[in-house]
Amino acid sequence: MLNKYARAFFTRVLTPFAAFLLRRGVSPDAVTLVGTAGVVAGALAFFPRGEFFWGTIVITLFVFSDLVDGNMARQAGTSSRWGAFLDSTLDRVADSAVFGGFALWYAGKGDDNVLCAVAVFCLASGQVVSYTKARGESIGLPVAVNGLVERAERLVISLVAAGLAGLHAFGVPGVDVLLPVALWVVAAGSAVTLAQRVVTVRREAAEADAGQAGDGPVPGPPQGSAHGTSQGSEA
């Protein structure tokens, strides 16, 4: 849901900036790479030390690259399969760094094995949620469901909570509980979303197989694609 409305809003806001970068000869791929590097650096440099406020500030400055690069490609007329693949792949890297940073904090000075496990679950489930949609589409199914918690929701909930929890270091009381609550919410929402997508793919696959039953054998996936890479951007 946030994907739809937030992207539309920020696309309008960031269009002039994207045009400025194009005039300076910056490529969309360069923006994608720099943005991902910034998110990874911010997450892994600050979050494992419990510096959630500053980590969130750094990540927020770079996370908008995910909107800027696509905007640049459309303005330049250079949208490509490679660009979509690179963007989607590096999104997974950035997400892993964010939740990996949380996990490292709770495995270390945060000293909470349960929340460490929840953060790891958020990391893993986010990857699998993305994979289910990409894999379903790769075998010709529409996967006509987004689910309860998409990538935008996962990041917004986690980063807003982390930034507010980081205010505890400045003497704001009670805010340190926000990050644990957010991680549980993201974990539960990701589990529900995964179930929604698996059920949808199962239904669509059954319908597709039934429709092909009278036309001869159902063709399998292309040779060597059983563990192929996913395509397209997720949610």
Give the SSE map.
Blueprint: H1 2-23, H2 28-46, H3 52-63, H4 65-76, H5 81-107, H6 113-138, H7 151-165, H8 178-212
Helix pairs in contact: 1-4, 2-3, 2-4, 2-5, 3-7, 4-5, 5-6, 6-8, 7-8
Quick tags:
8 helices, 235 residues, disordered C terminus, Four Helix Bundle (Hemerythrin (Met), subunit A), single chain, mainly alpha, PIP_synthase_PgsA1, membrane, transmembrane, Phosphatidylinositol phosphate synthase
CATH class: Mainly Alpha
Q: So, the CATH homologous superfamily?
A: CDP-alcohol phosphotransferase transmembrane (TM) domain
- Indicate the percent of residues in helices: over 70%
What is the strand content?
under 5%
Brief overview:
The chain has 235 residues and is an all-alpha fold. Helices cover 71% and strands 0% of the residues. The protein has a single domain, classed as Four Helix Bundle (Hemerythrin (Met), subunit A) (Up-down Bundle), CATH 1.20.120.
